[in-house]
Structure formats: structure tokens, C-alpha cells
Amino acid sequence: MATYRCSYSAVLLILFSLSAFAVADSQETTVSGEHNAAAVDNPQTATETAGQTAEKPAEKEERRWEATDVNTGATPDDAATDKQDTNGPETMDPLSAPRPKDDFQEELVIRPLHCGDIYASFQFRTLWETDFMTGNKVSHYRLFPKSLGQVISKFSVREMHISFTQGYWRTMQWGQPFLPSPPGAELWVWFQDTVTDVDGTWKELTNVLSGIFCASLNFIDSTNTVQPSASFKPLGIGNVTDHRFLRYATLPREIVCTENLTPWKKLLPCGSKAGLAVLMKSEKLFHSSFLSQSVHIRPVCQDWQCKSTSWELRQTLNVVFDLHTSAQGKREWSLFKMFSRTLTEACPLASSSKIYIDVTDNSQGELFEVSPATPLLSQAVVLGDRRTFSVYDLTNQITFGTTRSLNMLIRWKSTEGDMLRPLLHAERYVAGYGLQTGEIHTLMYNNHPYRSFPVLLLESVPWYLRLYIHTLTVTSKGKDNTPSYIHYEPSKDRLRPHLLEMLVQLPPNSVTEVTVQFERALLKWTEYTPDPNHGFYVGSSVISSLVPSIVAMDTNSTQERPLFSSFFPSKEESSYFMRVYTEPLLVNLPTPDFSMPYNVICLTCTVVAVGYGSLYNLLTRSFQIEEPSPGLAKRLANIIRRMRGVPPL
Amino acid sequence: MAAPLTLLLIVAVTIRAALYRSSLVDIISERVEVVSPLTAWKRVVEGLALLDLGVSPYAGDVFHETPLIIYLFHFVIDYAEITFMLADVITAVALYMSAQEYNKQVFRKQRFALEADRYPMDCIELIRSPKEMYYIPLKVAMFYLLNPFTILSCVAKATCGLNNAVISLFILATIKGNVLLSAIFLSLATYQSIYPLTLCASALLYLMQRQYIPVNPRRASFWWFVAQYAFMYLGSLFVIVGLSFFLLGSWDFLPSVYGFILSVPDLTPNIGLFWYFFAEMFEHFRLFFLCVFQINVFFYTIPLSVKLKEHPVFLIFMQLAVISIFKSYPTVGDIALYMAFLPLWNHLHRFLRNIFLVSCVLLSCSALFPVLWHLWIYAGSANSNFYYAITLLFNVAQILLVSDYFYAFLRREHHLTYGLYLKRKDGSEATLVLK
User: Fold this and answer.
1) CB contact under 8 A, A590 and B422
2) Rounded to whole angstroms, how far apart are CA atoms B261 and A91?
3) Interchain CB contact of A419 with B (< 8 Å)
4) Min CA distance, B163 vs chain A (Å)?
5) Phi and psi dihedrals of B190, rounded to 5?
6) Contact A465/A587 with Cβ under 8 angstroms?
7) pLDDT tens digits for range B202-218
8) Minimum-distance CB partner of A597 among B275, B280, B326
9) What is the predicted pLDDT for the residue at A52?
10) A574 or B342, which is more confident?
11) What is the DSSP letter of B429?
């Protein structure tokens, strides 16, 4: 209540004091009012935690909560100056120059994992208050990459999500990622409802994106594109439910490498010249257990009233470094060791540039030690868990210290510790032997001790594995678990894949097994990949769910939060959205002998000719008594006699 | 004669019922020789499951049965085993009665010929006696019911058994001379799987013969009868197709059933010639060879009808054999149907040239199918060529079998006209050759 009143009064104050501004500027002022509200919002929690830490005065001096810092660091006289302060370096003087309509933020989250691996997640967000759709051509680009802006306006894209992933995220070892992605390439796009030929636009779009990202997205065609009815709802604003405008495709075989990373880095305002992006050296990034880079474009609200929208471009890069390959088994990490670079500055175009280190399990410093130590702490609710982070603000020169470079060092003290088990986990495999039939098993684990919750399972299986939907079984705890919703689109040969979506209720603390049988098709010899006996990939199945949350989720989507915790909008406090991708499958198909098309054509035609010939023989000829044929000498003599005009012998 | 037939039916049903209860059912119903994508029971169940989910069974590429089949099993799904056994019994009884009727006619014709003194003197050993013809109908039923191919097909619940029942009812109606029923059953058979269309030539010939209408295109009565039959045939076909349309409310089944049969998109191995040929085909020749192979099935109708104008039942046998060899998705059930006719022609045995070789090849191929399939699909120690080689050999054997019977039939006819012991001009014993 207090916060509400506070923000309300702040908005009033701003409106009052800045009423002389032009009408065009009024939108930005409400946004900055929101910034202020956010800043005012946090002290409540800050004071709570300050109360908790009051018993340890020494520590209290060392560590400050981030929100308090923001609020007090500027030492404001009144709310108005404070508000202008938080707008970042570019908006220091709002009265002389209008605030640019775009904004760029970057952050890096580092989470030391219990197995000794380390998870680094980069997030870059560009917000732009523009409208690609109204018809007037957008030609002036500042922070937003022009290539993507043109794609959005040309193809009337409402939302676009694309990810390239090398490796498989091991949920049971690493916990939940901030942003899940399946191995290979994944692309899903919501088009505006003005698009008439969605399939044609989709085809063109994939080809254009293929060029932009140097990836084989042009291999996306109707045979691997589906239109999920429920699993992929728009993440931005706009409550579209007509899934005719949605296209979803995965390329599980796509190999992600430097040629995909370079164009991705070029989309950043600072490129890889400054800011956090300098850390992205391909030889280190691709020497890791898991690497995922993604681009998400969606319309978001500009303010809490959501009167106008702005476009959000989020670029994320998640990487997990393996303890044994990169750190030579020593449990010690540093920025230099991970990325073979250190940080010297923030991206000058960024309004915020921060590094977060997850120290939730390390509140006393018993697990690992971070140096240089930072006095800033922050809390965020992410994936149903309240986490504590040490924050390094790169826009602040003090962070870099006297050496003018930041090289964080994490040194493990003990190997103890227990990871919080993810509440939802899934795995998948193919059962059966031989090349004729098989069975796909999908196991979904609900690790919640007492709550059951529904999940949406999406399976998109290529046409050459012919699914038999009547063999579908869903069992949990040894009993049949009938899905409350099944959406099944059977495949068409060489035209479209199977799509199976269902809503399954997972009982508490249980494993739910979904099995479905399939038959392997024999393809034409030209339809096989160059290495046919390697097998064919089947994309990950997607499990989307609202998982009951232990802590209250933040439902205010416009509030200032760290980027990693604000991607999936949460509608209610008691649950949070989670998406889990299973392993892709590798399935062998029977193969013909590729070396003998000529032989087969010849032999089969011979058999047909034998049939034709023998019937033709019997049909056209008649039985006659065989007369002995005259000998060779007699025949020659007859020829000569005929030439002479003498009757033959 | 009723008692042995009843006994035979009881034995056949017992064998099937016993196999249905055994664990072999699962193995048999997965065999590619027994079920094709067109006839597999698993796909019928899938179609019903799709219907239950509210999806059109023809929306996907798994179900290729006709709408009537799906509605039939919509009601008798719980009695599927009985339905298939019943279909086999109907086929056998229909073939039995057809053979009986056919024998009667053969005998009558032979008597007229003898009375008219039309046979040469030395052909007395070629004349068929009622005694040796007595057991032929029973043998026909036995050949169908106890043929391992039929049993396998029935146990796998391949809908091929139903098609066979329809075709055998058509044969019965034709031989009994019922024009309307013949046309109706022929249109049903055509509706089930296009190919029986070619049987209409033999039906026309037989019915005209029976009604003493001369087979002469210059006579109005010939064309009048053809028009009558065509009207009945097309009318009932139209009614059936229209009924299917009203049952489903869409024309989706046309491309999904007939397009599927004609364009052969599913290359699942079977005993036919199509699958490997089109798996290995160069893309730009595909359409050409598809046309050639499909025309090949229909192509023999006219020359065979011309040649066998006087013998429409043998023509039916030849047509069935040609269809089952050259159709796009053949199964052993199709072979079983034409093999059931073999006892009808046991008077040709003295003229068969390579029946021993052919039977050996057919038997060994049937044994080798599962072996090489296992080596290719499960053991991985062989490849597709092994299985393909066996299908080739199997088809060559079938072709030889059919052409051998054709040869023997023609030769017997020749002897019945020109005498059995032919002499050369110089009086020495002559050998017959085809020229």
C-alpha cells in the first residue's frame, strides 16, 4: 500500500513539475516516473533485510543492498532530481535535449554450480519506442539493429524468438537455466494478424534469418514447422490466441559455431568492442559444455498503464564452463580464465551494465570466495526462488579499481553443498530394437512434495516416424493418467510433421511416463542425409508449465528488475512459468543401398519384362508343329538358287 | 458334399481361433509380407482413434482404408476377429459354390462338344470325368482356407481378407449369372482397391456367354448389354462413393485412398516390385515409371480378353494373378486368392512345364522372407538388397507359375482342336512350338 501511494504521489509530482513539457515528451516522463517508483519500491525489502543483518554490524558495513544504494547514492534533495539521476548518463539533461526513445542495458550473471562448473549468462536488452507497423517507414536506427528492424516491418512480425544451442542443458546437475533452449536451432514467430499468406511469409522470413545469422534456418520448411495450439503463447503484450499466426520449428541437428556468434555480436550496439561483449571470445565460448545464444524480439508495455508499446530486443548468451576441461580441475574461476579477457569498461551506450554473482548458497562465504569483493547486494525472485546476488556496476568507475580492469575471481572453499532440485524435470528416449518400429518414452518428473500441477507437453515428430496415436499411454504412479486436452495433427508424408500437444496433470512427487509407438519409414534414396546411418534427429519435446512457487512472484511486469528475472511475464504470484526441453532423439531408419539405383532399375524392369514377355509370347503366338529346319548348306544353296531364279531345293 | 465342407470350415476356424489366442498374433500382424500400409489392422485402429479424437482419419498419412471399412469397424471393432474369420468363410463358400457351378457348366459344354463330335479321336484322355471333378470345389475351398498365406492374413487381421470376400462374391454372382449383383460386388471391389476394375471384362464375357449374346462389336445386342452392365456398375459405384462422402462429409478419402494406391508414396517394404524400385528411382523419372508400372497392371486386360474370349473364368484367374503380382501394395492375402483357383485347373497338370521348380522357388522364398528381413532390420548383418532379391525371385516365380498355367491352358485347347498326338508331314512324332 505504501509503495502504491508513494508512486502515485511521485507521478503526480512529476506531472505537476514537468507540465511545461511538450505533449510528445509526456510519455517518457511517465516512464521515468516508473523508474522512480521502482526505486522507491525497494527500500521496503531493504529495510527488512537490514533489520535481519543488524545483528552483524561488521557485515552490514561491508555490504549494502543495491536498492538502498541507488536511493541514497545520489543524495537527492527531492524526488525529481533523484528521478533524473536514475535515467542514466544519456538523460542527464532532459531539459535541453529530448531523451532518446531507445535504451540499452547489459548484464552478466555468473552462477557457480555445485558440481564445480560455472554458468555465465549474458543478457542485452534494447528497448525502442517505435512502431514498425503503422506504415510510416522507420529509417533512423540508433541502438536497435537495422537488419532486425527491417525484418520486423517487412514480414509483419509480432514476436520472434530464435535460439542456437550447442550442447544439452543438464537440469539435474545445473538447475534451471534463466532462459531454456533446445539443442540445435529453434525459431518461433508470431505474425501480425494482417498477414494473409502466413506460410509464404514464414518461408521468406526463415531464409532472411538464415542469412542474418549464417545458420541453416533455410532448411525450415513445411516438414518441420508446426503450429502449436497452446504451448507457445506470445510473451509480449497482445492477447492473440489464434495459432494460425504462429509458426514453430526446430532444427535439432544444427551445429552452432563461430559463424553464428559473429553476426549475433554485431547486433549489439557496442559490437564486441566494449562492454560485456568483449568477453565473448569464440575459442573460449565454444570450448564449453553448453552454449546457447538467442534473440528475442517482442512488443512490451512502455509503462504500467500499457497505453503504448515499445519493441524489446533481448539477446542472451548462456554458457556453462566445464570444471575439468577449462580449469584443469582446480576449483577456481576468474573472468580471465573463463573468457581469456578482463573487463575494462561498460558499453558507453548502455544505460546500465552490471555483473551479478549468485551468492545465495554462500551467504557466509563458506562455499566460495569472490574477489574483488563488492559491497552491493541484490535480491531477485527468479524461477520461484529468491536469490541473492553480488552486484558489480560497470558504469561506476570504482568497480574497476586502481588497475582499471575487473577480473573477478571465484575460489571454492569446499565441495559441500546441495542443489535445489528443480521442481519440473523431463527426459526422453527411444525404446525398442530393430529398424521397423519403436516407442518414444517421455518421462516428466514432478519433484514438488505436495502440489500437483498441469503441464503442456508438445511433441513434434517428423513424418518419417509414423506415430500411432492409439498406442499413446500416459501413466503416473502406475495408474493411467488421462490427459485433459489432446491436440493431435497427424503427419502428411513429405509435407508436415506430427504435432501432439496435451495437458497432463502431474501428481506430487511422481514420474509421469508418456509413451507412443511409431513405425520407421523407408525413404527415397535422395531423401536421406549424406550420413544416413548416423540417424535422424527428432527435436526436443517442449514442456511448458506454471509451476507452483514457494515465494511470491513479482507480477508487475514493468517494474525495474534484473534482466534475467524479467523475461517470462508472471500473471499470478503463486506460480511461475517454466519451460523444459527434453533431449533430442536420434533415430535410425532403414536404408536402401545407395550404390545401386541403376541395378535396381535394371533388375526390376527385367522382372516386369519377364512378365510382359511371357504373356506377350503366349498372347500373340500360336501353337505350330515344329518342322526340322534345313541345314546351313541347304539354306545357302537355296539363297543362291533364289538369286539365280531357280526353284529352291 | 456339405459335410466335408462343414468339417473344413470348422477346422479352418479352429486354426484361426487358436492362432488368435497365441502369442504369434503380434509377430504376424507386424510382418510386412502379410500387411501393407493399405490393409494393416493397426492403421484401421489408428483411423478409429483419430475419429475418436475428432480428427479426420484422412488428415494424416497413416489411414488409407475406405470410409465404408471405417464405418464397418466402428460398429464391429469388438468382434473384429469374428469378422475376419467370417470373411474367410464367406470367401471359401463363395469360391466353393462358384467352382461347383463352373464345373457343371464345363461338364455341360463338354457333353455338347462330345455329342457334336467336335473333339478329335485321340483326345479322349483330355476329356474330364465327373469323378475327378467331384472334389474340385472342396479342394478350392481347402486351398483358400488352409493356405498358410490366408491364415496369416486372417490372423494379422489384414483387410485384404475383406477385399477377397467381396471379389469372391463377385465371382459367385457372375458365375451364377446374376448381372445386378455381379455389377454391385464388382463396384464394391473397385471401391476397395481400384485394380479389380479389370475384372469387368471377364464378367461381361461370361455373362454374355451365359445369355447367348454374341461377343461381336458389330451387333447392337452386344453394346446394349455392355451399356446395361456399365450402367449398373457405374451406378452402384456412384452410390457407394456418394455414401462415403455423406458419411464423412468430405472428399478427403479420394486422394488418401486412390491417390495413395496410384502414386505409391509409402515405400514400406512388401513382396511387390514397387517399393525398392521407387526408393531407388531417379527423381525426374519417377512419374514416368509410375505411369508405366500402373498401366502395366491394367494393360493385359484387353489382349487377355481377346485371347480368352471363350474362357472367362480362366480370364478371371489370370487377371487376379496379374493384379496380385503387379499391384502397388501386394500382400500374401492377394496371392492366396488366385492360388485358390489352382485346383480348378488340375486337368492342366500334364502340360505344366516347370511347376516343380516354381513351387520350390515359391516355398523357399516364403521361408526366406522372414529370415532376410530379420538379417536386414534386426541383425543389421544384411542390407536391403537381400530382401529385395527375394521379392524379385518370388515375383519371377509367380510370373512363371501364371504363364505356365496360361501356356498349359492354351495348349490343351489346341490339342482339343487338333488332336493330342500330332504328326509331322513325314509321319514322325511332332513337337509343338509357339510361333
Assistant:
1) no
2) 71
3) no
4) 24
5) -65, -40
6) yes
7) 999 999 999 998 888 88
8) B280
9) 41
10) B342
11) B
Tell me the C-alpha distance between A19 and A26, whole Å: 8
Residue B237 CB partners (closer than 8 Å, separation 6+): B187, B190, B191
A384, burial (CB in 10 Å: exposed 0-12, middle 13-18, buried 19+): buried
For residue A490, the chain B residue with the least C-alpha distance is B60
Residues A474 and A482 sit within 8 Å (Cβ to Cβ): yes
The pLDDT assigned to A335 comes to 87
The answer to whether A521 contacts B267, with C-beta atoms less than 8 Å apart, is yes
The one-letter amino acid at B321: A
Q: In what order do the strands lie in the sheet with A498-506?
A: A485-489, A498-506, A453-461, A542-548, A575-581
Amino acid identity at A278: V
Radius of gyration of chain A (CA): 33
Question: How far away is chain B from the Cα of A224, in angstroms, using its nearest Cα?
Answer: 15
- pTM beyond cutoff 0.90: no
Q: How confident is the model at residue B434 (pLDDT cuts 50, 70, 90)?
A: confident
Tallying the residues shown for chain A, one arrives at 649
Phi, psi of A585 (to 5 degrees): -105, 150
Query: Under a CB-based contact definition with an 8 Å cutoff, are residues B99 and B397 in contact?
Result: no
Distances (CA, A) of B423 to B165, B418, B420, B426, B430: 47, 10, 10, 8, 5
Return the percentage of chain A with pLDDT > 70, whole number: 81
Q: What mean pLDDT comes out for the span A157-162?
A: 93
B425: chain A residues, CB-CB within 8 Å: 627
Q: What is the mean pLDDT of residues A212-237?
A: 92
Task: State residue A22's pLDDT score.
Answer: 39
Q: In whole angstroms, give the CA distance from residue B413 to residue B351.
A: 11
| ipTM associated with this complex | 0.95
**Tens digit of each residue's pLDDT (9 = 90 or more) over A420-441:** 778 999 999 999 999 999 999 9
Predicted confidence (pLDDT) at residue A74 exceeds the cutoff of 70? no
Mark which residues 512-571 of A lie under 8 Å from B by CB: 519, 521-526
Q: Rounded to the nearest 5 degrees, what angle is found at the Cα of B250, between the Cα atoms of B248 and B253?
A: 80
Rg (CA), chain B: 23
Task: Specify the pLDDT at position B265.
Answer: 94
Using CA atoms, how far apart are residues B196 and B200, in angstroms rounded to an integer?
8
The answer, yes or no, to whether residue A72 has pLDDT greater than 90, is no
> Using 50, 70 and 90 to split pLDDT, how confident is the model at A19?
very low
Q: Is A4 on the interface with B (CB under 8 A)?
A: no
Whether residues B42 and A468 touch (CB distance < 8 A) is answered with yes
Q: What whole-number distance in Å separates Cα of residue A432 and Cα of residue A546?
A: 33
C-alpha grid cell, residue B90: 464367406
Contacts of A486 in chain B (CB under 8 A): 53
In this complex, do A596 and B385 lie within 8 Å of one another by their Cβ atoms? yes
Q: Which of residues 356-395 of B touch A (CB under 8 A)?
A: 376-378, 383-385, 388, 392, 395
Interface check for B131 against chain A (CB to CB < 8 A): the answer is no
Confidence of residue A526 (pLDDT cuts 50, 70, 90): very high
| C-beta atoms surrounding A466 within 10 Å | 26
In degrees, to the nearest 5, what angle opens at C-alpha A251 toward C-alphas A250 and A257?
125
Side-chain-facing half-sphere of A46: CA atoms under 13 Å: 19
CA distances from residue B6 to A244, B147, B352 in whole angstroms, order as listed: 61, 17, 32
Residue in chain B nearest A520 by alpha carbon? B268
B87, with CB counted inside 10 A (0-12, 13-18, 19+), is buried
Average pLDDT, chain A: 81
